[in-house]
Amino acid sequence: MTVAADLERAIDAWHRTLTPERAGESSAWLTEQLRRRGLFFGDRPLCTVLRPRFLAPAQYQLLQRRIAILLRAFDKALEAALERPVLLDRFGLLDWERSLALLDPGIPASPVSRLDAFFDPGDGRLRFTEYNAETPAGSAYNDALTQLFLAIPVAREFARTHALRPLPAVPNVTHALLDAWEQWSGRRELPVIGILDWTEVPTRSEFLLYQQYFESLGIRCVIADVRECELVGGRLVAAGTPIDLIYKRVLIHELIGRMGMEHPIVSAVISGAVCMVNPFRCKILHKKASLAVLSDERNAGLFGKKEQKVIADHIPWTRVVEERSTTFRGETIDLLPWMADRKDQLVLKPNDDYGGAGIVLGWEVDGATWSDAIRTALAEPFIVQERIGLPSEAFPSWVDGALVFADRIVDTAPFVFRGAYADGCLTRVSTATLVNVTAGGGSTVPTFVVEKR
Q1: Which of 116, 215, 353, 369 is deepest in the core (most CB within 10 A)?
Q2: Residue 333 · residue 325 · CB < 8 Å
Q3: Do 401 and 339 have their domain in common?
């Protein structure tokens, strides 16, 4: 029996259990629980479907093994870039980003991160399309939804025949933060944690989940607006409270763009008054060009044979948009004219943005729009990436008093810790090609490893 067949049987078993009566009951229960717990992304409920995402044990084990190798490749690329300015240039950092990234943070570059990927339906291969190495969201949402779907009414009958193994992420986030704190400070006493962002961001509900979790462990946590921070007596003070560790949520380019390099957070990190996770150095790998550095033939010598194979198997062909010759599937190409002729095979992405902003899917635009997009990509840092197959699954939902099944594109976004291992997995499902909750195009669902009892 294949992995695909096992998963199909598990999905069918869940759907058989979901009678219209039970679907209505489960939908009402889930909606009430989401409301009670504040599980909304802005004003939208975090989850709008009635089934979690299932992974087979073999799928999850393979994912973890391959990611461990891939992370070694990212680490080698980072180390080489710090030693070789020419290689660092290929990541496309702005001058101020580069100056901050070159400061030694005293901790790893990305203690908490997330890879975004899809299982290609053509061959079942996992293809990583982005590395969120700066400040990934979703881990607390994932764990909260996991608790709800273990208790949702439809799961009662399903649990008779199948075992659901949850994949929590929040404990690993906490371990990574405290590990970074001890490494940075040399002390074991618990730090005061500050979660710093703009008050109006739609992810504020997740900050509250983390605050509740940290405080349940006896760790004081302050949520504050970036504009409420000041440097007082050598301490960073957020909303009147001195903090030791920033569990940074505000994006670096937003912080600098809106508040400038003289902001107290920047000054406190540079002076060593506070530990920030992730540190400014995370920007190097967070750039989408990091995938281009891994897949570019010019950099193959940085990696061992296992790493080269994992890169070839799991990283789509990616290049920084520029005038140059390169290779594609072993053939030498002149990049720009080659891109112009193959829009249906390619996607353009800004080197540093989020929420799907600026992404151009070549197969969804006409030739004139694609040509304009290439011109924009030449003027600003962009990458071009090979199109991959997008998997879809049928997900049930309760719409206007009826049970409805709709095919939705499914992504796979495993959480990564201490730059070394993956544990836990964010899943977003969407009827739109661009699977992104921030862009308003999807729903978050918890991920479980499922097995027949």
Answers
A1: 116
A2: yes
A3: no
Under DSSP, the state recorded for 260 is -
What percentage of the chain exceeds 70 in pLDDT? 97
- What domain range is 354 assigned to? 317-386
The residues near 371 (Cβ < 8 Å, ≥ 6 apart) are: 340
Tell me, yes or no, whether 84 and 192 share the same domain: yes
Give yes or no for residue 40 having a pLDDT over 90: no
pLDDT of residue 78: 98
pLDDT value at residue 376:
94
Q: Give the count of beta carbons closer than 10 Å to the beta carbon of residue 124.
A: 14
Structural tokens at position 13: 């078993």
Same-domain check for residues 367 and 229: no
Report the domain count for the chain. Answer: 2
Distance CA 106, CA 120 (A): 38
359 and 222 fall within a common domain: no
Q: Do 81 and 217 have their domain in common? A: yes
Q: pLDDT of 276-322, one tens digit each?
A: 999 999 999 999 999 999 999 999 999 999 999 999 999 999 999 99
Q: End-to-end alpha-carbon separation of the chain, Å? A: 15
What is the domain-level CATH number for residue 236? 3.40.50.1760
Q: Which residues of 24-39 are buried (b: 16+ CB within 10 A; e: fewer)?
A: bebbeebeebbeebeb
* Pairing label, strands 40-41, 421-430: unpaired
